[in-house]
Amino acid sequence: xxxxxxxxxxxxxxxxxxxxxxxxxxxxxxxxxxxxxxxxxxxxxxxxxxxxxxxxxxxxxxxxxxxxxxxxxxxxxxxxxxxxxxxxxxxxxxxxxxxxxxxxxxxxxxxxxxxxxxxxxxxxxxxxxxxxxxxxxxxxxxxxxxxxxxxxxxxxxxxxxxxxxxxxxxxxxxxxxxxxxxxxxxxxxxxxxxxxxxxxxxxxxxxxxxxxxxxxxxxxxxxxxxxxxxxxxxxxxxxxxxxxxxxxxxxxxxxxxxxxxxxxxxxxxxxxxxxxxxxxxxxxxxxxxxxxxxxxxxxxx
Length: 301
Fold this sequence. Notes:
This protein is of the alpha/beta class. Helix content is 48%, strand content 9%. α10 crosses α13. It starts with 25 loop residues before the first helix and ends with a helix. Mean pLDDT is 89; it is low at 1-8.
């Protein structure tokens, strides 16, 4: 099976701050708006945690709420990797974790800001990316939230959040998008791209995952893997070709889990999950680990 060339696609998606298109999550938005509109009689919870899989629109919703609270003027503080700084205050946007210095700088600016009687909004995107010291700094702020301050915390994996932080928040669990909602977003933001139903299903409700799949060619790799496993004449060489393509892009590792689900091989799921975790944790040769998982799938068919 000859390897296909990897696509080199780029999509010009708007930043969540500039994205006025929110698809889905109307229930979460209504819940917040009900609380906000009745804040004079029932004080609104100061900390809202928007949690759910990556790529479903959590940050878009957070910015939409922020704009409604403070308008386009006022006190608005954002903590994210794009605004990350090091101990010397120098920009460090290419990091993988948000530093405590970034959080401290935000707190200093917040304390110096003049509220003018209005609300302040602190948006953290995402809490998962805070390092331990940064999480503890946020925790201290949440223990006694400043008056008329709303915290919007974007969370991709709730288990990654300190229990003490989680306990101080109102947790809103946002659901993955439906197939029709994903298709609506594709028409809006990827009008020239052919996104079939199989790819929409493979995305597991995440529009962000669709973009990753199309950019990396992951949708084609998935289809190739399914076809190869169904082919009784496929051999170890065929399996290694696909294993190498998957191993070359760590974001594609979950494809083998999707294939396991496709064939209904639930017993293999924990084995494959641990094997992928081992690749990330102890730096095994990824193509060998992926090859072994594919081989186990083949044996079960």
